[in-house]
Amino acid sequence: METAWRRAKRALAVNLCVYVPGNLDDDGGSPSGGHASGTSSDGAASEAAPVSPWGASDYQALMPTTPTPTSAGLRLSKSGSRSSKRTCAICLVTMKSGHGHALFTAECSHTFHFHCIASNVKHGNRVCPVCRAKWKEIPFQAPPPSEHPHGRARVNPINWPQEEGYMTVVRRLPRADSANRQHHLTPLFHTSEPVYFNDDEPLDLQPDTTRNSQRGCSKTVEVKVYPEFSAIPQSASRENFTILIHLKAPHASTNQVSSRNINASSTASQTSRAPVDLVTVLDVSGSMAGTKLALLKRAMGFVIQTLGPSDRLSVIAFSSTARRLFHLRRMSDSGRQQALQAVNSLVANGGTNIAEGLRKGAKVIEERREKNPVCSIILLSDGQDTYTVASNSGGTQRSQVDYESLVPSSIRGATSYQIPVHAFGFGADHDSASMHSISETSGGTFSFIETEGAIQDAFAQCIGGLLSVVVQEMWVGVECVHPGVQLAPIKSGSYASQVAGDGRSGSIDLGDLYADEERDFLVSINIPPAREEIVLLKVCCSYRDPVMNETVNLEGEELRIQRPEVVAGQTMSVEVDREKNRVQAAEAMEAARAAAEQGALSDAVSILEERRRILSESLAGRSGDRLCLALDAELKEMQERMANRQRYEASGRAYVLSGLSSHSWQRATLRGDSTDSVSLIHAYQTPSMVNMLERSQTLSPSPWLLNPPIHPVRSSSFATQPQPR
């Protein structure tokens, strides 16, 4: 017969969020800042005060070890266990009369804090968290009789004050016979939603006392221009002469890298960065049951604990339908506590309706009354949308599917107000093509989470970027100065660019930049003969500083070139050659993917092999440039994942698409696990991302370890590091 300890472990793996209040006391003590006492002998309780945040040491001590993909669930040391009769299995706080909590004893004889189990039931859980017994009677929070004279019970929404003095157990659940049980599944959510999502919590508008001190020392975007060659003979003309435009965002301040200390929150610590409105759209379909859902809850717990009191969060959970767990609210102490409680209540069942989840996430953003400077959506799914996109079995038809229909028109890149969706494909069964299309259409990135244990690190890297936005609405202009110079089309990846009809000017729209992020763009021009030094072009840019809420205009940097009579022994710029290699490698990846989708895997491998050969013979490649070494390692891994159709379908497609997303936006993505035993690729990571990854791995080490990259040469887009053995 299964022991109580095994039942508790199984409950922890499925239902419980692993972020729990610290300072537990075996003798009945409550957490610091705990609930006010006042429970009478009949179980009624006065209103409870919010629990204060816990320390990092408490968090680390209570964090279970990360399971392997084949494990049944999270493991918790027996030394940290509590008897279900003495400790609430949901919040892990000791249950004792006289400590400000009403208690509820279920028909299976397990006892919980009433507000804990009522919230659990409200979000769809109608089984015992300890023994998994199905309940015939369920607890609900009820209002005071004065508000409802007829005694009609209602569910208490997550953002309303808890009134534990008034409680009730409403109706018995209808029984479903075994033949029809699948048609009577308990709905995931059953609380009513407002028609309009304009119930967002007001912003925390604190006076910024640091602006005056920052105004005089704030840095601006760094702009550099590199010509392919420094001189051209007087009598010579050049077609498609290449120029590199290099941009680097300002550094993050100390407080900007880490938004919040685990031990305590501080509004003042956020004055040096732009606060965020974040909506997470989470897949809780049946395939997420077990370890996947437990790891997702842990990852969301890390996100909730990382956000500061000026940041706002809303969570959308979707399976066959979608539901908003709670309104867009600030992550204050009480906000974090209730967000953790809501995420903790998630259960997995049903199908996968990504479009409905995104529609509801977009609705939260569209209808909010107030707006933080930074806004984004995080989407995670481990399956394929079976409600909006017609399925197809052949890889040759994949490119014809209209994946853009999954993205609400309000957040597409074609609209004036773009909301990036950072998509995370979880496991081998997700539809990487649709997730990549969603992110590409909205201006976000696509990451491939191949190993289940990497989900928290993936979220941490993304959050590290979102919490360090220092540039918004960035625009770069290129203007030809010499009358004989003309621009060719600009290679800008996924960023929108244009060239005037007369070829005399062009521009690139970059949007947001994280602290220390770099962007490189190649511009080709035609140069006529000239008898003296000439000014080829001028580069200028403008952007909005989200912290200062000011527009910054940078005057252009002019590019001059020498025109001697004879030029001998000239070498190409290493900076230009390095960027050419990156762009051409990305083009080879796209060509190889197109061949693979047509079933020509051998052709795809040959395309990548040829690019590796050219890369090794380039100027930067021969000099041992680290970017070139990283590109070669990436191309090699893509070849291995295209070795056969089964490998390509299982992980190759997702790996290639994640790499293409990273290169096209020049932004870090997660790309599965490298099979190369010598190096691990770190693409476009910023110090803020590395800092957040270190926090994630320090608080909860995972099998997917990512060492901080060495700060490389000027192009810090890539670095290679020894892989842990």
From TrEMBL:
<dbReference type="Pfam" id="PF13639">
    <property type="entry name" value="zf-RING_2"/>
</dbReference>
<keyword id="KW-0862">Zinc</keyword>
<dbReference type="Pfam" id="PF00092">
    <property type="entry name" value="VWA"/>
</dbReference>
<feature type="domain" description="RING-type">
    <location>
        <begin position="88"/>
        <end position="132"/>
    </location>
</feature>
<keyword id="KW-0479">Metal-binding</keyword>
<dbReference type="InterPro" id="IPR002035">
    <property type="entry name" value="VWF_A"/>
</dbReference>
<dbReference type="InterPro" id="IPR032838">
    <property type="entry name" value="Vwaint_dom"/>
</dbReference>
<dbReference type="InterPro" id="IPR051266">
    <property type="entry name" value="CLCR"/>
</dbReference>
<dbReference type="InterPro" id="IPR013083">
    <property type="entry name" value="Znf_RING/FYVE/PHD"/>
</dbReference>
<feature type="region of interest" description="Disordered">
    <location>
        <begin position="28"/>
        <end position="79"/>
    </location>
</feature>
<dbReference type="GO" id="GO:0008270">
    <property type="term" value="F:zinc ion binding"/>
</dbReference>
<protein>
    <submittedName>
        <fullName>E3 ubiquitin-protein ligase WAV3-like</fullName>
    </submittedName>
</protein>
<keyword id="KW-0863">Zinc-finger</keyword>
<dbReference type="Pfam" id="PF14624">
    <property type="entry name" value="Vwaint"/>
</dbReference>
<feature type="domain" description="VWFA">
    <location>
        <begin position="277"/>
        <end position="463"/>
    </location>
</feature>
<dbReference type="InterPro" id="IPR036465">
    <property type="entry name" value="vWFA_dom_sf"/>
</dbReference>
<dbReference type="InterPro" id="IPR001841">
    <property type="entry name" value="Znf_RING"/>
</dbReference>
